[in-house]
# Entry
Amino acid sequence: MPGYDWLHDSLFMWELYSDQAIALKSTVRRLRKSLEDSGEDVQVSKVKYIDYEDSKIDEKDTYSPFVHKRLSYENEQEVRAIIQETPNVRPQKESEDSLGLYIPIGEDVTDTMLVPGKLVSVDLETLVSNIYISPSRGEQFEELVEMLVSDAGLDVDVTRSELDSDPVY
# Structure
């Protein structure tokens, strides 16, 4: 479903990702703005969906593996926010084709080389423009979400999925 748009609910997307949840509406502009005061160098990029048999990613670009996915995931229309910290690697010339760095894999990887995920401060008021309730959730769930939004001090609309409404015909 390239070009998926929250103006029209998608039963496929609810079932694929969770029919017992909420969905947050935002834009790339809102995401970037919500991260401005995070104190982190965050790169925001649309994911490019490619056929790995026909296309190659730029191996010299360290962001490339994180912003490419198989063409079969194109319906997701994903955007990623990436903070890249260089792992602890030791220089070692392996062959004439290498760039002079030995990147440890498998048993060579130690805990000190791994960079864990990172919590980043986000301005939720800026990030979220609307919250949608799954079509399989009842009225009590909607009330709970509205209460949580209110308690968090957010001025964000909470909307039931249009798939809950009766068809016009």
User: Anything to note?
Assistant: The CA atoms of residues 96 and 102 lie 13 Å apart. Helices lie at 11-17, 28-34, 124-127, 139-151.
